[in-house]
Amino acid sequence: MTARTHAALELDDIQRGVLSPRPTPYAATYILFRVDDPVHGRELMRRVSAVVTSAADTTSPLGETWVSVALTCHGLRALGVPPEALETFAWEFRQGMAARAKALGDVGESAPENWEAPLGTPDVHVVLVALAPDSTCLEMAVDRARPAYHRLSGVTAIWRQNCHALPTETEPFGYRDGISHPAVEGSGIPGSNPLEAPLRAGEFVLGYPDELGGVQTPQPGILGRNGSYVVFRKIHQRVAAFRRYLRDNSTGPEDEELLAAKIMGRWRSGAPLALSPSRDDPGLGGDPHRNNVFLYERDDPAGFTTPGGCHIRRGHPRDAAVAGVPRLHRMIRRGTAYGPPLPEGVLEDDGADRGLMFAFVGAHLGRQFEFVQSEWMNDGVFFGAGDARDPVIGAGDGPGDFTIPRRPLRRRLRALPRFVVTRGGEYCFMPSLSALRWLGDLRH
């Protein structure tokens, strides 16, 4: 690692959607647009530049409410960004998520040909996201943004997904979500784990030094600097199948909850196994000052407390000595639930579409999102488990296995079905506020 120099982040130019953790509880909406007229598309950029919330605006009258705007590579092209500028963006971004499906494990039911239209198609150009603590504030944010695209005949809204916190404030499988958030140098936002040193700004914001000392900036600089890459992903969750698997592979209600905790790495309350290994502790799970303060390597290197193959340890190995330096694969991750909750105790699918809209934020699509998805979620080689995949969101063909280290005999779960199906997604670029204005002023 190179010597660390702390570059001051230009927070008033960075979209707040890049750095801020989502509120809890929350309401959110995702609106996709197609640009048929580049003149109207550029006008949209001019208008949204006045609506988008900056990372410096943390004392808005609307509180924890913000609007963000991102573009696909097709979207930048539709606005008239020159080919030579597009060539300076990450090649994964230029290819798009649908083209990267096999590498991500999006096969079979999750393959792009089965995605929800228009996700993964060249028609998706602009993504507008509004996030708020409740539906009232959300509608105020959408109303504020609506004039930006209203009466632009060359810009068409083609898809919308509304999301909301469930009454239990958990994700559809029943676990408390939105717990872990990294500290980013210069952001002024504390991380959720004080044992984790802040990461360099260039891991998340383009134009600043990253953990390796490199600086990634698409050109021209006015377009790339202070922007970020964002992965949007719609995941359908098979909640009834998940509940049935837990019931069928446990000896009773207490064992069922322990099994659920071992698969996730946390009890459903949010209490981590690392801090509460033998029983749930809802007080700990609901305490944001305590529920993420732990490491693995010092106290649990073999995974007897928190299995190496569980979901949270795969997604963020913390201080563990695994393939690749974990800090180089860290992302800002947000999940927002969609669809009605499956009533408690119901074990049969009711046909409703429910799941999560994920947003992954980082400056390196390849070594962050794609690496974690392909090497840590869909494979187990990095911790000595062969081709075993993540028990919760692992992708691929056929059933999988999951091993729980235990003395004197390990516990092995076999024939894990697919509990999630990819409904679609996009690789996007979230420009700075000045870049939005630059896009609005593009001339040919």
UniProtKB/TrEMBL annotation:
<protein>
    <submittedName>
        <fullName>Peroxidase</fullName>
    </submittedName>
</protein>
<keyword id="KW-0560">Oxidoreductase</keyword>
<comment type="similarity">
    <text>Belongs to the DyP-type peroxidase family.</text>
</comment>
<keyword id="KW-0575">Peroxidase</keyword>
<feature type="domain" description="DyP dimeric alpha+beta barrel">
    <location>
        <begin position="27"/>
        <end position="142"/>
    </location>
</feature>
<keyword id="KW-0479">Metal-binding</keyword>
<dbReference type="GO" id="GO:0046872">
    <property type="term" value="F:metal ion binding"/>
</dbReference>
<dbReference type="InterPro" id="IPR049509">
    <property type="entry name" value="DyP_N"/>
</dbReference>
<dbReference type="Pfam" id="PF21105">
    <property type="entry name" value="DyP_N"/>
</dbReference>
<dbReference type="GO" id="GO:0005829">
    <property type="term" value="C:cytosol"/>
</dbReference>
<dbReference type="InterPro" id="IPR006314">
    <property type="entry name" value="Dyp_peroxidase"/>
</dbReference>
<dbReference type="GO" id="GO:0020037">
    <property type="term" value="F:heme binding"/>
</dbReference>
<keyword id="KW-0408">Iron</keyword>
<dbReference type="InterPro" id="IPR011008">
    <property type="entry name" value="Dimeric_a/b-barrel"/>
</dbReference>
<dbReference type="GO" id="GO:0004601">
    <property type="term" value="F:peroxidase activity"/>
</dbReference>
